[in-house]
Here is the input.
Amino acid sequence: MFKLIEAINENSQIRIQGKDYKVLAKVFYVTESETEKWYAKIQMQDHYVLVISPYDNYMYFGYVGDVMQCDFPSPETLEFKGNLYKKDAEDYQIVKEFVFGNYLTMEGEVKFSDYSCEDKIISLGLLSRTGERADVYADVIEIGDIEVI
Here is the structure.
């Protein structure tokens, strides 16, 4: 996964599950509770995002969508499209390294709650800079689902 992250550069095209996306930004983050093991967020066109956590051998791909109708602190479970999601994490995201992209379109520091239901993820985000929400709806994917083209 480290090689994949390194291969993604400004203006790269990424093919994920057979569809092509233009890369707009790449930022490395840590969390308040885990300051050593960073993860990468890759922002792509049309509000898509790829999150790669190489230390956990874990990644997901999704989009920033409509705000989930709940507040922070968030509930222990969420229902979405007939599925019950359970809270896995609640933390604070901190920028470790801004690699490239537009500072104003990337999340920056965010209070977040992550939920899962089988291979689906909902990550609720409250942006520190603006106070706005940035909720991500995603699927867990494998390294074989991605190709830098």
Q: What stands out?
A: The CA atoms of residues 128 and 148 lie 31 Å apart. The first helix runs from residue 2 to 7. The two ends are 16 Å apart (CA to CA).
